[in-house]
Write a structure and sequence with these properties.
six-stranded antiparallel sheet, 23 strands, 7 helices, cysteine-type peptidase activity, 309 residues, 16% helix, 3 domains, thiol protease, SH3 type barrels, endopeptidase fold (from Nostoc punctiforme), alpha+beta
């Protein structure tokens, strides 16, 4: 393998799936490898067994949203190994690692320069259309896609993108400087953001409004408040403030480990108050709110953490 120079490129599709190796994708994964990507077609085209294989055969690592800057680690043919700085991981100090098709990344100096301007338009609905101009719509963006603001009007915002300046509806975004939103209601806002996705099917490695895995869901709902936490549940459980069971509040994270809590951590949920939790459970299910008491893995609840204060 050829070692690439250390540089960065931007994700140039709505959602880039990050694969374990260039050989990981199967024929049925072709819609997820294109530009423009067809995430909806990919998901609807997979059988339950196909979706289970993503986890069981360790095919997918994570996902990255349009405009996300990734660091180039290696280049091999039509594939680039990247690290995602916004997704902290002990696997790679520079960010979560994995492989993305070359055609889903773009090097655009004007976009890179715009990242320094300080204001971001962040998609606040589950999905939002990007517009090439006032008449022509482009790709559909996921919740939490972040793009630099170039100018603002009453009904639209012009943003920098890897494909040049484009537009978003003002009603589809929140404009922010990217700072953390920590106050006495932050935990409740994390919970309310999560409730938006009730009924959304689980996706192994998912980090978008097209599907989340358990830790991707926890990571993203915290990101909605400007709070960056590690990508994987096992690492999320090592940081933040430990919370005793009697002190749990909405927005706290509950972690579950094998061997009745003594083994490796395998799942995370968000506490919803009143003994309830919201989570993205497993491939055969969708995001749901359920009681912790009586949950099939209740005895494996091992620790709780708080990141929002």
């Amino acid at each position: 393998m050829m070692k690439a120079e250390r540089n960065k490129q931007a994700v140039a599709v709505a959602v880039a799936t990050v694969w374990t190796t260039p050989d990981s994708p199967r024929d049925i994964d072709t819609p997820a490898l294109q530009n423009p990507v067809d995430i909806k077609g990919w998901l609807t085209g997979m059988s339950l067994d196909d979706k289970l294989e993503l986890c069981q055969n360790n095919l997918v690592q994570t996902q990255a949203l349009y405009g996300t800057m990734v660091e180039i680690l290696e280049e091999v043919g039509d594939w680039i190994k990247v690290a995602i700085p916004d997704q902290a991981s002990r696997k790679e100090v520079r960010g979560y690692p994995g492989w993305i098709p070359r055609l889903q990344l773009k090097d655009n100096n004007e976009y890179t320069d715009a990242l320094e301007q300080g204001l971001w338009a962040v998609v606040s609905r589950p999905k939002a259309k990007l517009y090439k101009n006032r008449e022509e719509s482009g790709i559909t963006l996921s919740f939490l896609t972040r793009l630099p603001v170039l100018s603002q009007e009453d009904v639209s915002i012009t943003v920098a993108t890897p494909d040049g300046p484009q537009m978003l509806k003002t009603s589809d975004v929140t404009v922010t400087d990217g700072s953390e939103r920590k106050d006495e209601r932050t935990g409740l806002r994390i919970l309310e953001a999560g409730k938006t996705f009730l009924g959304l099917p689980y996706l192994w490695g998912g980090m978008s409004a097209f599907g989340y895995d358990c830790s991707g869901f926890a990571h993203s709902m915290h990101r909605s408040q400007g709070i960056l936490i590690p990508r994987d549940a096992s690492e999320q459980a090592r940081c933040g403030k430990e919370i005793a069971p009697e002190d749990l509040a909405p927005g706290d994270l509950l972690f579950f480990a094998y061997e009745e809590g003594r083994g490796a951590i395998y799942h995370v949920s968000i506490y919803a108050g009143g003994g309830m939790m919201i989570h993205s459970p497993e491939t055969i299910k969708s995001i749901e709110i359920i009681p912790l008491c009586g949950y099939k893995y209740e005895k494996e609840h091992c620790i709780s953490r708080r990141y929002w204060e």
